[in-house]
Amino acid sequence: MEDETGPMVHDGDVPDSSSLSSDGQPKPEFIWTLVQIASIWAISDIGYYLLPTLGVQSSYNESSVAITLYYFFCAGIAVITFWPVYLTWSLYGRWTTFGSRLTSLAVWTLSFAAFTVFAAYVLPHLPPVDWKESWNPPDVRIATPSYFLPKTIEIFFQQLLIVALVLTFAARRYSLWKISIYCAVLFGGTHVLLALGGVPLGYVVRFMVAATVFGFVFPYLILRVPNGLAYSYIVHWLYYAASVVLPHIFAVPVK
């Protein structure tokens, strides 16, 4: 199945011979790419929880600039590591990168403006959250405008890894359905690392379930929708915006 942008992900599950060895097994390059994606993701999460050893508080609200720089560095690592993978995007997507620059500019400008307005003007005017639990609240429950500075870069970093994962599976000519299932399982599974933050199991499960759902949707956006990475990023960002807003609306202090 092809169009003017190049070969598409096949509807069948026939692996591309370029990713298979002579005995029909995945080539080491394919396995190595998956190992790199998993390693960078895990190490970045572990590194975040080790920031206090460098005198940086593990809080998006209190150490927003330092954590922003940390995830900016991680994003750079992802870009450098997976640049050859990103260059194959045109082989598996149905659209040319920035094929319609006007549309891309509109998506970029409107989303950037909306994110800024929400963080800078809407969030500070929400009702306060009345926290009564015995455990320390996660940053997202008591988020300040500063929270979204590092969170915005962290989401970008995660999207870079997701794109690398999607394209790596697409190179094996997996169907979109199969890619979506793999991404759902893997993206949901990575959120088990939230347990390192000392939050309750229910909190971890909630984010794992949400990540599984989004992980199923992201491949379709990335491979089949013009400006799909932007929409994938927007959906990812909006989930955290909703996670911030809902406690303010439904957990208003009783007067």
Task: Quote the beta fraction.
Answer: under 5%
Task: Give the integer mean of the pLDDT values.
Answer: 84
Strand arrangement in the largest pleated sheet: 1-2
| Head-to-tail CA distance between termini | 62 Å
The quaternary state of the protein chains shown equals single chain
**Overall geometry:** globular
Poorly predicted runs are 1-7, 9-18
The topology string of helices and strands comes to EEHHHHHHHH
How many strands? 2
Count of structural domains: 1
Please outline the major beta sheet: 2 strands, antiparallel
Count of helices? 8
Radius of gyration over all CA atoms, rounded = 20 Å
Helix content: 55-70%
Computed structural class: mainly alpha
Task: Give your account of this protein's structure.
This protein has 255 residues and is mainly alpha-helical. The chain has one domain. The protein is 61% helix and 2% strand. It contains 8 helices and 2 strands. It has helices at residues 28-49, 64-86, 89-92, 101-122, 148-170, 176-190, 201-224, 228-250; strands at residues 2-3, 6-7. It has a two-stranded antiparallel ribbon with strand order 1-2. A hairpin with a 2-residue loop joins strand 1 and strand 2 (6-7). Helix 6 runs antiparallel to helix 7 (201-224) and helix 7 packs antiparallel against helix 8. It is globular. It starts with a strand and ends in a 5-residue tail after the last helix.
Offer a few descriptive terms.
two-stranded antiparallel ribbon; mainly alpha; 2 strands; transmembrane helix; transmembrane; CAAX protease self-immunity; globular; 255 residues
